[in-house]
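Lab notebook, bench 4. The sequencing result for the construct came back, and we need a structural model before the next group meeting so we can plan mutations. Quick request posted to the team channel:

Model the 3D structure of this chain.
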Amino acid sequence: MGSTGLNKARDKMAAAGVDEVAIETFAHYYRLLEHGETGMIPESTIEPVDIGSLKDVEVSDEDAAAALRTTAIIRLNGGLGTSMGMDRAKSLLCVRRGLSFLDIIARQVLHLRKEYDAPLPLMFMNSFRTSGDTMAALARYEDLPVEGLPLEFLQNKEPKLLVKDLSPVSWVKDPDLEWCPPGHGDLYTALRGQGLLERLIEAGYDRVFVANSDNLGAVPDPRVAGWFATSGAPFGIEAVRRRPSDQKGGHFARRRSDGRIILRETAQTLPADREALGNLERHRFCSTNNVWFDLRRMKEALDVRDGILGLPLIRNEKTVDPSDPSTPKVIQVETAMGAAIEVFPDSTLIEVGRDRFAPVKTTNDLLVLRSDVYDLRPDFVLDQVAPELPYVELDDAYYKVVAEFDKRFPTGTPSMKKASKLIVEGDVTFGAHVQVVGDVELHAGLAERIPDDTVLTADS
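Done. Here's the predicted structure in token form:
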């Protein structure tokens, strides 16, 4: 028997057709909440981690090609891009030469299949909000589905819980707001609950490569596949060196009690440890969310745990309507996909270049991705042609929403390949063929337009 709140949540999930594995996983985390679990990871319990670099790893062409032929790809595609003012899958956003994230991902995979004679199945973990638009957009790629495997599977959903008593919230104005995704740690629950782990193994695949749809740098590269396959590790994550822009984000560390690698997210950091969180010399590596795992070892781990991998809890407190702070406070129970690294004692990390980590979380990132900082190669892989990635900070009042952002770049993005920094305060519209060189800061008191062919420098 569970508590009243848990029983209500169970009934609500069952009535909505949520998979039993997902319900039991939710119940596991609900009980942790009831017992006061916060998911916090104190600085005193961890120490920095050192890792090897991909550039120092030797992988033969044969091992690389063989690994790719037994690899399946999953793209996490549940996000709507609401923080950028979107109401559909963020992966539908046009990013390069009239192509969306989905277009480029599909073409990357089709090219690799042909080049390596590899089946390389691609699946998208969609949410109930992104499924329809995504599948409609992918319909043009008739050769993309692999026989016997779905092109999509659905992320689970769970009820938001009222902070005051942990009961599932009721919101008549918009019942959809009563639900939330369980974080991308739900990947393992969804794969097991929908029988996809077994289907992939039976079809002859050994490992899975998982990445976010908004990270076009996350190509299923044969050399990285070869590294993971020959490492013998059950689970691995690609890591990058943290930069000043990563100071507020999560990082890898090693747990003192058992020596296991862990991933500590910002939401799992105590206020007193925020300074340590931002210390780039102490905690040098963050996650790309490019994850590799061995299918059989993952299935074994789930089997012995009755389908509950036991990832660390992330207690995310919000309001039932995220756009209205006056609405009731709720808890969203979440887990992080990368946190599975601590489940396996012999997990591994590898340092990769920033070329494998180009996520688009804001319109600042979108400006860089659309600019000439990158080129799109014939194999549809992003190629950073600029010597460095510029730091971009656009005024949220005018650029945060994609529709408003696009209005201010009516003829396309300025040239950014010679830029190191662009900060814009105020309402600035850019003309055609504008160049940004070096460190540039623009401060507009009133709405301004940068004339065509202007070269912006620190002195301009």
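The chain has two domains: 4-356, 363-456.
Will bring this to the meeting.
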